[in-house]
Amino acid sequence: MIRLDNATKVYKRGARPALDSVSVEIERGDFVFLVGSSGSGKSTFLKLILREERPTGGDVYVAGRHLNKLSAWRVPHLRREIGAVFQDFRLLPNKTVYQNVAFALQVIGKSRHHIQSTVPEMLDLVGLSGKERRMPHELSGGEQQRVAIARAFVNHPPILLCDEPTGNLDPGTSVGIMRLLDRINRTGTTVLMATHDDEIVDQMRKRVIELRGGQLVRDQDRGVYGLERV
Amino acid sequence: MRLRFIFGEVFNGLRRNSTMALSVVLVTFVSLTFVGAAALIQMQINQLKDDWYGKVEISIFLCPENSRNENCAEGAVTTAQEDAIKSVLEDGALSGLVQKVYYESRQEAYDKFVANDKEGIWSSLTPDQMQPSFRVKLSDPEQYQVVADATEGLPGVDVVRDQREIFSQLFRFLNAATIVAAALAAVMLVAAMLLITTTIRLSALSRRRETEIMRMVGSSRSLIQMPFMLEGAVAATAGAVLAAGGLFFGVRYLVDDWLKGSVTWVQYIGAHDVWSVAPWLLVIAVGLAAIASLVTLGRYTRA
């Protein structure tokens, strides 16, 4: 599903590479934590997969596409196969919960009929039935993140990228979000989650990929957050 | 769905950014009014040229008695000289340029003069004091100088006059007016373009959240950019429509209702001529918006 072959990213010529010859393969249906301190290369890793950035060396394959050779006009098709969730939710403040989720389908040209049947289903899945007409500022942080997950997953992409999805949430709320991501993973969706949240990683016991200074230092099944605790 | 989405976004964008949109409308309105005015002045000039040059003749005045002109030192023009001049006009190299030659004798000149002199101020004149002349109608009025050069200085020719000289001052004035209008139009068009650029930029910045999400969920670049382009185009087109309307009423009230009534000997352009200019104004407006979009959007809504 996702494969990096010696992927290297150097932002500025001569600078230390943000990602240094990383090779990793993530299979369909995997649930993977991407851990590492700030500046370890997590964001660059995600950006390469979303093709926000191109690798300066090595190859990146996502959903059967060789991203090095993907032309700019085909990038939107790649992004339709990847849902993305962020720490800061990124909801549209002037749209309701329903409209926020529907927006993702509208802008890729789905029919009104399709939207009307899919969005309520998705809101039900994330546990927000009955809150369709709320505005984002009327929701708790956890609820806002559920809206963001609903928006990312409403088109049923085979890959879900989550960049610190629990970073702004208290531990109790985070558990709820993790249950939801786990549930989505069980539908066969590949979930890749970058995080700092050691409790969650330790609890879930999923595959852990650790980056340090741009290099892959650990790739462990059923891993925990810090090596020292193994 | 997409069309609904696009037009919804355009409407929202214009509403949210209404002061900028209004300023784009006004600036394009003023600039395209100048463009249109310049075009209409040129149309008026062409109409006058068609109208007047067709009627214009070259007058070759022949030597009278006692002329102070050097070329007439030998006294009044002789019949032999007249024949020679006539054959130069009708048979020589000039024959291709000359449509018709008409000889006006002293008596005919006198009769015309007296007919115009209703108060009898010049009643002491006699036909002998008048100048005979050839009136030459050209097949191409623009070739005046060639004919003048060829005939001026021939024995018996006093002076060659072209009636176009009367109009050339007016045309020079109108051409200067065209240049002024075109220069103002150019400055205003630059202002309009910068303003459209700024409007699109502001609009793109104020909707960065939306475009960011659109990018993430994989909407095409054209769908992301279209609303901004259309926003500029809609505002510019509104300006063009106002300009066309302004020109229409301007021509109607200034030319049709006023000039045509007070200065009657001129053929004027009419309000209907504005309709041949209007499509070009629309083309310019849309082109302006398109260029501004291309310059701006690449930077503010990347793929």
Walk me through the topology:
The complex is a heterodimer of chains A (230) and B (303).
Chain A: E1 2-9, E2 19-26, E3 31-35, H1 42-49, E4 57-62, E5 65-66, H2 75-79, E6 82-86, H3 97-106, H4 112-125, H5 141-153, E7 159-163, H6 171-186, E8 190-194, H7 198-204, E9 207-212, E10 215-220
Parallel strand pairs in A: 3-8, 3-9, 6-7, 7-8
Antiparallel strand pairs in A: 1-2, 1-4, 4-5, 9-10
Chain B: H1 2-16, H2 18-53, E1 58-62, H3 79-90, E2 98-104, H4 106-116, E3 133-138, H5 144-151, E4 157-162, H6 164-206, H7 208-217, H8 221-262, H9 271-300
Antiparallel strand pairs in B: 1-3, 1-4, 2-3
Helix pairs in contact in B: 1-8, 2-6, 2-8, 2-9, 6-8, 6-9, 8-9
Describe the model.
- The complex is a heterodimer of chains A (230) and B (303).
- Chain A is α/β, with parallel strands linked by helices and 230 residues long.
- Chain A is built from seven helices and ten strands.
- Chain A has helices spanning 42-49, 75-79, 97-106, 112-125, 141-153, 171-186, 198-204; strands spanning 2-9, 19-26, 31-35, 57-62, 65-66, 82-86, 159-163, 190-194, 207-212, 215-220.
- In chain A, the strands form two sheets. In chain A, strands 6-7-8-3-9-10 form a six-stranded mixed beta sheet, with helices on both faces. Chain A has a four-stranded antiparallel beta sheet with strand order 2-1-4-5, with helices on one face.
- In chain A, a hairpin with a 2-residue loop joins strand 9 (207-212) and strand 10.
- In chain A, helix 3 crosses helix 4, helix 3 packs parallel to helix 5 (141-153) and helix 5 runs parallel beside helix 6.
- With 303 residues, chain B is an alpha+beta fold.
- Chain B folds into two domains: 2-52 and 168-300, no CATH class; 57-162, Alpha-Beta Plaits (2-Layer Sandwich).
- Helices cover 68% and strands 8% of the residues of chain B.
- Chain B has nine helices and four strands.
- A four-stranded antiparallel beta sheet of chain B has the order 2-3-1-4.
- Chain B is elongated.
- The mean pLDDT of chain B is 83.
- The interface between A and B is medium-sized, with 29 and 18 residues.
